[in-house]
Amino acid sequence: MRYVVAGAVLRERGGTTELLLAQRSYPEAVAGLWELPGGKAEDGEDLADALRRELLEELEITVEVGAGLAERVVLRDDLTMLARWARILRGTPHAVEHRGLRWVGPDDLERMARTGELVPADEVWVPELAAVLRDD
Ligand code: 9L3
Ligand code: MG
Description:
Bound molecules: ligand 9L3, magnesium ion
Largest sheet: 8 strands, mixed
């Protein structure tokens, strides 16, 4: 089994919590849609290490990786995706591979889910993400 690990990167802004979304530039089917950034772990690679590596490559940020979100997503028979909470330790996110980046609150996130602006595979996380964004 291979794993894709995605980061639910949070920041605090003026007493509210925001989530980092990244706009995919490929493949064609999902180009323009927004996702939790991340990518495939190498065989045998620790999943937290894989997420730190992917976010450094894709966004030029160093993150602290926290707990996992509840849901896992089966992408293919041999490929499962999971998400971990993360916070930036160093750097400012830059869209190295993505078309764009944005920080969203719970209302933005839910609106984007309703209007089909999120990558379909990531929609399962919206209730948990929105709940934490409202709670914090
Ligand atoms: N994927 C879906 N949602 C995400 C991420 C990071 C990835 N939040 C899917 C898209 C690709 C596969 O996982 O089919 C590998 O991701 P990447 O290496 O192209 O980012
Ligand atoms: Mg990626």
